[in-house]
Amino acid sequence: MKLWSGRFESGTSQLMDLFNNSIQFDHRMYKEDLAGSLAHAKMLAKMGILTEDELKKLVLALKEIEAEIELGSFQFKIEDEDLHMAVEKQLTEKLGDLGKKIHTARSRNDQVALDFRLYVRRECRAIESLIRELMSVLLEHAAANTHVIMPGYTHLQKAQPVRLAYHLMAYFEMLKRDVSRFEDAFDRMDLSPIGSGALAGTSYESDRFMTAAELGFSGPSENAMDSVADRDFAVEFLSACAITMMHLSRLAEEFVIWSSGEFGFIEIGDAYATGSSIMPQKKNPDAAELIRGKTGRVYGDLMSLLTVMKGLPMAYNKDMQEDKEPVFDAGDTVKLCLKVFADMLRHTVFKPEPMLNQCKAGFLNATDLADYLVKKGMPFRDAHEVSGKLVAYAIKEKKILEALSLEAMQAVSDLIGEDVYDAIDIERCVENKKSYGSTSLASVQHMLKLGEEYLEV
Fold first, then answer.
1. Is residue 12 very low, low, confident or very high in pLDDT (cuts 50, 70, 90)?
2. The CATH number of the domain where 393 resides is what?
């Protein structure tokens, strides 16, 4: 018999039970549900709705149910519809009428809103921790490779030389923003909805400030209708997940490219690569490719919930049962991808020689040649033209800029002197960058220091 069956003359069909229930996926919030019931029971006792003896019995029964769930002896049944009804039913079986009292001054609407908020808050903290772990590995590689020079790219075309550490710290900055997004989302969901009732509040004497404090919230939500209708916190969580996956996907794409024979910048460890069933020579960067692929899955989770919520009137609607699976899926996916990426990075070897060779072969010092001419008094646009002509000449002669003779360069501009070779030396090109946040050694070392301080907090 359903706990809400009083108004009905007949039961729901078996098909409706299958269609309507959420217990097959929402049972993962059992810790949050039991914590919410415990806090609510304490509040009911404070208000005199429960006696101290009744509270003790409820606390004991709730702890027994938690132990049963964790031991696997608690049966989640389709006919119980959802986690909340299953727990209440078990309380009633254990305590009789006392078990029925637990639902006083609350509704499933505010109960599920509470459980879901508590769950998403926990996921935020778990993901923040995993992002920091990946940042720590990035920082380790950056600190170990401050003198490694690699090509920087725009349009996937070689652009200017940079330090490998500088490139890695760019992703460190992305991940810092990801942590802040989860922190911001956490702060905005830091209000407790329990005690809001179905949508209008409750006529019982209650203390929502007490339950909020018991559950670690900064306070109760202000509007009961918004409390049960709001899923912004879940949408924000999914948005933060999607942006984090975008960043992981971008670095994964670089790993796929860098590990190719055409680049040869890195060697991904065997633990995170696979072979081919037909081509014996292959070593495929499958872990990086899967992270890149799973990004689309998390984007889909975000779009799914946005679509569910876009046309819902106040307050709770059954559509909102569709909020949990996208959140569960996105959280699981992001956590797994972060763990895999951190360990894949630990097993990755960077190769300085191919990186430096590509800097030299790709004329990445052409901008520095133009800057050299500007410092000699030539307007930048004219200097750009001269440098471009010398690059074209070097390509025709199948040489790098540094290998051109002084006479050949002076034939294009008489401002060029012997000191040009120092100006276009690849290592000097990197070190000569002076602006804040640049790729010079001092700048990168400052970034590393700030990174260490950030992770220590």
1. confident
2. 1.10.40.30
Torsion of CA 29, 34, 40, 42, to 10 degrees: -150
247 is catalytic: no
Which backbone phi and psi does 440 adopt, to 5 degrees?
A: -65, 160
362 and 332 fall within a common domain = no
Show Cβ contacts of residue 238 under 8 Å, excluding neighbours closer than 6 positions: 298, 301, 302, 305, 326, 327, 330
Going by their DSSP bridges, the two strands 157-163 and 266-268 should be labelled as: unpaired
Q: Does the pTM exceed 0.90? A: yes
| Distance of alpha carbon 280 from alpha carbon 86, whole angstroms | 54
Question: Is residue 234 a contact partner of residue 244, using CB atoms and an 8 Å limit?
Answer: no
For residue 6, pLDDT over 80 is answered with no
Q: Does 155 participate in catalysis according to the annotation?
A: yes
10 Å CB burial of residue 349 (0-12, 13-18, 19+) is: exposed
CATH number at residue 222: 1.20.200.10
Do 315 and 286 fall within a single domain? Answer: yes
Return the beta strands (E) in 141-298 as ranges. Answer: 149-154, 157-163, 191-192, 219-220, 266-268
Q: For the purposes of burial, counting CB atoms within 10 Å of the CB of 73, is it exposed (0-12), middle (13-18) or buried (19 or more)?
A: exposed
Given 10, 73, 155, 435, the catalytic residue? 155
**Mean pLDDT for the chain?**
96
- For residues 13, 18, 21, 27, the Cα torsion angle rounded to the nearest 10 degrees is 140
State the residue range of the domain holding 417.
357-456
Residue among 74, 71, 43, 42 at smallest CA distance from 59: 42
- What pLDDT is stored for residue 1 in this prediction? 62
Q: Please state the domain count of the chain.
A: 3
Do 99 and 116 belong to one domain? no
Options 5, 180, 218, 276, the catalytic residue: 276
> Confidence band (pLDDT; 50, 70, 90) for 4?
low
Q: Let me know: does 59 contact 41? Beta carbons within 8 Å.
A: yes
- DSSP 8-state assignment for residue 403: G
